[in-house]
Amino acid sequence: MNSIDSITLEVADPAAARAFYAEAFGLDTQLRFRTADAPSTGFRGFTLSLTVAQPADVDALVDAALAAGATTTKPVAKSFWGYGGAVQAPDGAIWTIASSSKKNKGPATKQFGDLVLLLGCADVAASKAFYVEHGLTVARSFGRKYVEFEAGSGPVKLGLYGRRALAKNAGVPAEGSGSHRMALNGGGTPAVDPDGFAWETARVDAS
């Protein structure tokens, strides 16, 4: 368990979800889908994030997501950290799209730099210890507030954030219960972290 090969999202309609992510964000092998109706209410405790080079790219991806059926949870705006916003995909997963730049340097594109999975943790330090023990390497750490791990050979970076702070960043209430309806796919022995997020070795994809 030293890198994330892909993310499995549990959705009502795998074919529709696959089509949405291809159209909105140009994602393919980074995401897997399987049918599931596990009960889940409110915030699922995680967000997925695309980082881009400039504000125009944020707008291009957000506009594409909305046109494909997403809804806004946090309107795009400038902030102290840059420029970005958040949307909720038709399957319920929340995505943030952001740039550290506040100025455009060229024509808009739908290209992104990093795909980041942020997990909302009850105790960031405890979750950090779990992932370090399971082979991940810390890239950046800000005490009990935020941790980012090296991506390794995988296409997805992993970060840890306090649950309430993560929900606020996504523009949604922090309350939620039931299944996360998401699993991390990677090598090593299957495991479940302190917040109930499951690592799986099988790469399950629905037809």
Secondary-structure map:
Elements: E1 6-11, H1 14-25, E2 31-35, E3 40-42, E4 46-52, H2 55-67, E5 71-78, E6 83-88, E7 94-99, E8 114-121, H3 124-133, E9 138-142, E10 146-149, E11 156-162, H4 163-170, E12 176-178, E13 182-185, E14 191-192, E15 198-200
Parallel strand pairs: 1-2, 4-7, 8-11, 13-15
Antiparallel strand pairs: 1-13, 3-12, 4-8, 5-6, 6-7, 9-10, 10-11, 14-15
Characterization of this structure:
- It is a single chain.
- The chain is α/β, with parallel strands linked by helices.
- The chain has one domain (6-36, 44-200): 2,3-Dihydroxybiphenyl 1,2-Dioxygenase, domain 1 (Roll).
- The chain has helices at residues 14-25, 55-67, 124-133, 163-170, and strands at residues 6-11, 31-35, 40-42, 46-52, 71-78, 83-88, 94-99, 114-121, 138-142, 146-149, 156-162, 176-178, 182-185, 191-192, 198-200.
- An eight-stranded mixed β-sheet has the order 5-6-7-4-8-11-10-9.
- Helix 1 (14-25) links the parallel strand 1 (6-11) and strand 2.
- Helix 1 packs antiparallel against helix 2.
- The model has no long low-confidence stretch (mean pLDDT 93).
- InterPro entries: Glyas_Bleomycin-R_OHBP_Dase (IPR029068).
- This is Glyoxalase.
Strand order of the largest sheet: 5-6-7-4-8-11-10-9
CATH superfamily: 2,3-Dihydroxybiphenyl 1,2-Dioxygenase, domain 1
Mean pLDDT: 93
Helix share bin: 10-25%
In total, how many domains does the architecture comprise? 1
- CATH architecture descriptor text: Roll
Query: What is the CA-atom radius of gyration, in angstroms?
Result: 16 Å
